[in-house]
């Protein structure tokens, strides 16, 4: 159903629901058969499926894989294979990728609108106008016993660019370009910037990167960040430690010209802003709903994903500092369980499930891939008195020889006194997969020595880089 007529049973015109969910990304994932007996309002102002499906994780990785294929062909000579890239059919890529994604998004909307009798879809910008009372943005007001905020985040645009009037791209529209720019300027040095730099350069564009930080991916372990910055400088034109002072259209009316604080001027066919994403907590009428925000603008939640307003929960980018889809999905499962637990308790204290944010892994699908879990070396030394660290090169294991890899590193960090693994950081091919044994060890309390010696490691698989790093720790 969509946007129902006013209920004659409610003289105020507001319709009451058992549960209202704002956002159809991860917020739409827990509404399973357990909720079939409840009256649910689902509110969405954009495209069904959220950031990950439509403009984030999934389409970017489909482009990343194509860029990986192109890079592999260009580098094949080192293996005695003569190969080259004849061309990149970007329009075909766009059609292949969004020809799969758009129907999934449309199908998700159709399912909720037409096939879920207990769900009413409101398509507009929802915001609180009173505690547990929402203006749906469709001309209707609804109330609910329980409300879930899953409103995600949006791109941050630096003031110098926002006020310039120059045309710019973000992750939300850059992938729809059917013609690749010859030269693209990317503003930002984080996850999004690094991934799009790989996509565009791998598919044939010249890339310039501008950042206020002196390093790429500065949130990572210092050694990994510095190593990646060095590798990035070989592939891309880096302008670090100097933010954008001004921007304008080129004199021919296309592309953009930017001036940096150090006086450097750059001219490109396209300008991509990738300076991070801001939680949409400021767009929901939080004060009217009795919802507190954190100092950095997120919805404040406790370990059960409850906000400061009774009956209101939150999940994903609107409340999480991690801004990762796997975190949002985990929080959605927690919220789904806790909503039902509270209802079953009938006003009595409920036994709630806490979210587990102890060991949140992350990966950057750039070139080479990067993955991390646990503490950085600096964090470990700040928190533990006796730390041991081992950095293992891909080039020192047999599969690394096969790959002729002189870039990859695996870094593991442990407490020398207890043998506890504290962190793992990998930069190189398949990093997002190779990190998984370290995630598992941290999550289940497996010590570094026990992990290294207590199982078989397939020879000569690339996982030996993790094994040898663990064996090299001084425990």
Structural notes for this entry:
The structure is a single chain. The chain is 29% helix and 21% strand. It contains 13 helices and 21 strands. It has helices spanning 50-55, 57-74, 90-115, 159-162, 191-202, 222-235, 325-345, 377-383, 398-403, 431-434, 436-443, 448-453, 464-471, and strands at 15-22, 40-43, 119-122, 127-130, 133-135, 141-149, 153-155, 183-187, 206-210, 237-239, 244-248, 256-260, 265-268, 270-273, 277-279, 312-314, 362-364, 370-374, 387-393, 409-415, 421-427. The chain is globular and about 75 Å long. Mean pLDDT is 96; it is low at 3-11.
Number of helices: 13
Query: What would you call the shape?
Result: globular
First-residue to last-residue Cα separation:
62 Å
What would you report as the Rg, rounded to the nearest angstrom? 24 Å
Poorly predicted sequence stretches spanning 5 or more consecutive residues: 3-11
Structural category: alpha/beta
User: Strand percentage, roughly?
Assistant: 15-25%
Proportion of helical residues: 25-40%
Largest sheet: 7 strands, mixed
Average pLDDT works out at 96
Number of strands: 21
């Amino acid at each position: 159903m969509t946007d129902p007529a006013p209920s004659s049973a409610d003289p105020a015109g507001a319709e009451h629901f058992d549960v209202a969910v704002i956002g159809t990304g991860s917020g739409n994932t827990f509404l399973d058969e357990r909720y079939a007996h409840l009256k649910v309002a689902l509110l969405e102002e954009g495209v069904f499926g959220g950031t990950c499906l439509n403009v984030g994780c999934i389409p970017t990785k489909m482009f990343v894989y194509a860029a990986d294929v192109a890079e592999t062909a260009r580098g094949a000579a080192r293996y005695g294979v003569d190969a080259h890239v004849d061309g990149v059919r970007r329009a075909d890529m766009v059609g292949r990728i969004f020809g799969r994604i758009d129907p999934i998004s449309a199908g998700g909307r159709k399912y909720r609108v037409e096939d879920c009798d207990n769900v009413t879809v409101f398509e507009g910008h929802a915001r609180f106008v009173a505690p547990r009372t929402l203006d749906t943005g469709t001309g209707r007001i609804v109330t609910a016993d329980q409300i879930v905020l899953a409103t995600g985040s949006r791109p941050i645009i630096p003031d110098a660019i926002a006020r310039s009037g120059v045309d710019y791209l973000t992750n939300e529209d850059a992938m729809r370009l059917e013609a690749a720019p010859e030269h693209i300027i990317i503003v930002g040095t984080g996850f999004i910037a690094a991934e799009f730099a790989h996509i565009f350069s791998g598919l044939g564009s010249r890339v310039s990167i501008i950042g206020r930080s002196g390093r790429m991916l500065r949130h990572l372990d210092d050694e990994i960040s510095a190593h990646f910055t060095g590798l990035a400088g070989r592939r891309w034109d880096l302008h670090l430690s100097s933010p954008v002072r001004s921007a304008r259209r080129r004199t021919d009316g296309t592309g953009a010209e930017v001036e940096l604080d150090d006086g450097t001027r750059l001219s490109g066919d396209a300008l991509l802003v990738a300076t991070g994403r801001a939680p949409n907590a400021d767009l929901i009428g939080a004060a009217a709903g009795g919802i507190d925000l954190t100092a950095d603008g997120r919805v404040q939640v406790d370990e059960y994903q409850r906000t400061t307003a009774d009956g209101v929960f939150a999940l994903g980018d609107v409340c999480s500092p991690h801004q990762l889809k796997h975190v949002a999905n985990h929080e959605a499962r927690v919220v789904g369980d806790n909503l039902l637990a509270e209802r079953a308790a009938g006003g009595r204290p409920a036994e709630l499930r806490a979210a587990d944010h102890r060991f949140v892994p992350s990966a950057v699908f750039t070139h080479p891939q990067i993955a991390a879990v646990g503490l950085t070396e600096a964090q470990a030394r700040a928190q533990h008195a006796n730390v041991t660290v081992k950095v293992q090169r891909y080039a020192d294991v047999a599969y690394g020889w096969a790959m002729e890899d002189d870039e990859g590193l695996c870094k593991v960090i442990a407490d020398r006194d207890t043998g506890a693994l504290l962190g793992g950081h990998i930069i190189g091919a398949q990093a997002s997969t190779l990190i998984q044994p370290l995630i598992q060890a941290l999550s289940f309390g497996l010590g570094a020595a026990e992990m290294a010696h207590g199982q078989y490691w397939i020879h000569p698989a690339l996982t030996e880089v993790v094994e040898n790093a663990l064996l090299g720790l001084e425990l």
